[in-house]
Amino acid sequence: MYRLRGKVALIAPNSYVANLALKVSKGFGDIVEIYEGNLEEGVKAAKRALTKGCKVIISRGGTALMIEEELDVTVVPISFTSNDLIKTISKIKLDDNVIGIIGYKNLIEGITEIENLLDYRIYFSEIRHHKEIEEKILELYKRFGVENFIGGEAVVKIAEDLGLKGFLMECGAGAIKRAISEGIRIAKIIVELNEERMQLRAIAEHSSDGIILLDEMDKIKYINPSAQRVLMINYEDMLGENVLNYISSQKIIDAVKKKEQVIAEYDQIKNTKVIFNYVPLMENNNKIGSIISFNDISKIEELERKIRKEQYTRGFVAKYTFNDIIATSERMKNIIEMAKRISKNDTTILITGESGTGKELMAQSIHNESLRKHGPFIAVNCASLPKNLLESELFGYAEGAFTGAKKGGKPGLFELAHMGTIFLDEIADMPLDLQAHLLRVIQEKEVSRIGDDKVIPIDVRVIAATNKDLRKYVSEGKFREDLYYRLNVINIKIPPLRERKEDIPLLIKYFLSIYASKNKMVPKKVNEEAIKILKNYSWPGNIRELQNFIERLMLTVEKNIIDEKDVCEILDIDKECIYDPSSGAMEKYLESGINNIGEKMNKGILNRMEKEYILKILKEVNGNRKKAAEILGISTTTLWRRLKELNINY
User: What percent of the chain has pLDDT over 70?
Assistant: First the structure.
C-alpha cells in the first residue's frame, strides 16, 4: 500500500474529532494524514495536503462543502449516524422533549429516520452555508418553540449567543472509519487510473504511429511526437485548437465531419503518405471524443523490407499457397482439397511424386494454410549434404563437439523450426543411422545437440517428400520401417504431368504470363495444334520441364503466336512421332546397342527417347552409373559419353 501513502487527508473541525481520527487511522497504516481546521481554516489545511500529493479529502459538514466548492479534489463527507444522535441525546439533560438539529445535508441525511424512534419531537433543518445557521435556529424557535439545538461548533455557539441551548453532535469512531475506508478505496482507484494514464502516455510518446486525441468538439487534447513530426507543428501551438485547422487531407476531414469509424484508409498528410484510422469515442450513444492515428507508409515498407530480407536470407519463409498451385483436373482438385483439410492439424505428412511435380510447392501451401503459418518454414534437402554435415544441420551441435565447431555451438534446423514446419525433401536418401535419430526427435518432440546431453523441447510439424518408392526401400533394408510408418500417417501422391494432361493448357498460359512479366515482354499465345502436341508429350521432367520449356519459347520465338513447328523444334521431336514411353519402344531400340542408331528414324526423336530412357534407368538405380550401364548393356565409358552428348546431369 506504499503507493497510497499520504494520498488521503482527514480535515477535522475540532481537536476532539482530530484525536479520534488519529486513533482510527492507525488501523490503516500511514495512508491517512490528519489536519485540524474548520470552514475557511479547513480549506487552507486541504490546500496544504494537496501540495503534498493528496488525492482524496475527508471532512464533515460545512468544511467538506467549502473544500468541494473551492478545490478540484474528491471529498468524502463524514456523516452522522443514528447511533451518534442517540449517544449525544443520552448525554445531555433537557427541560423538554423538543430538539432542533441543524446541519448540512451531508451531515444529517443518515439520521432523519430516527425521528419517530425516540420520545422526542425532533426538527431537522438543512443549511447550505454556515451563514444560514442563525436564520434556521430562529425559524425553529419561533414556529415550534425549539430551545435545544444539536449540531456542529458553529450551531452551538450561535444558539448560546441567542440565549438558547446548544449541544455538540458527537462523531463516533464508526463514522470516521467508514469515511476513511471509502476515501482509501477512491484514492486507490485514482492512483491506478493515474498510473494507467502515465503508461498509456508513455506508450503514445514512444509510438512510431501518429496519435491525436480530440474532445467532443474536435479540439486537440493530446498529440504525440510522431504526429507532431508529420504535421510539422509544436504541441503547444495545437493544443485546444480544432484539428481541421491543421489537417488538409480530404479523407481525414470527411471522417472527422461524418464522425464515422474509418479503419486502414490511405491518405496523405502534408508530404507523408499514411494509412490512417479514425475512431469516435462514444458513451451512452453520445460522442465524448475521438482518436486519429496514422502510420507513415514509408516506415511500414522499410520495416517490411527488413523483415523479408532477414527471413528470406535465412530461408525460413514459405512463399507459396494453394492459390499458386495451377490445376483444373479433378484429380488435382481432390488432392488440393484433401491437403487443405489436413493442414489444420499437426499430422506428419509424406508427399510422394516424380521429380518436378511440385512437392515443395505442396508442402509450403500446407504450411501457409495451417495454424503454424506465422511460424518458420524450413526446407532441407536430405540428398544434398553429406551425412556428418546433415546431422549437425538438422540437430545442431554444442561448443567443442568436434574440431572446427563454432564457439557457443549452433542450433539445429529442428530448433529453428520451433512452432513452425520442417520440410525434409528427398527423405529416402537420409542415411540409416540418421533415420534412427530423426525417429526419436519426431516421437519424443525433443532434440539434443551433437556433443551435448541437454534435451531441448520442440514443437515442429514434419512434412517429408520423396520421388522414390519407400516401400521398396524398406523391403531392401535401405529405409527404416518404423520411420516409414511414422512419416506416412498421411500420404499425398502428386501425379506426374502426363497423368493430368487437362492441366497443361492452364499451366502453359500461366508460365507464359509469368515470363512475359519477368522479361517485360508482350505475352505470347500457343495455337491449338501446338497445345495438342504439348498435351501428348510425356514430360519426363514434369512441371519443372514444362516451365523451363515455356521460358525458352518466350526467349527464342519472336512471333506472338507459337505454333506446332516452334514446339517441335525446341522439343527436338517430329510431331508425327509423339510416343507413349510405356510402349516399350525405347527398350527395343536400345536392344541393338546405343551406338547403332538406325537411319530410318529421325535423329531428334531418337535422342529424346534415348535421353528419357537413360534417365528412367538412372532413377531406378539411384544414380549408380555402373549398374545403369549394365542394364543398358553398354560400358560405363560409353554411358558417360552419351550423358555428356545428351546433356544429362544426374
Answer: 88
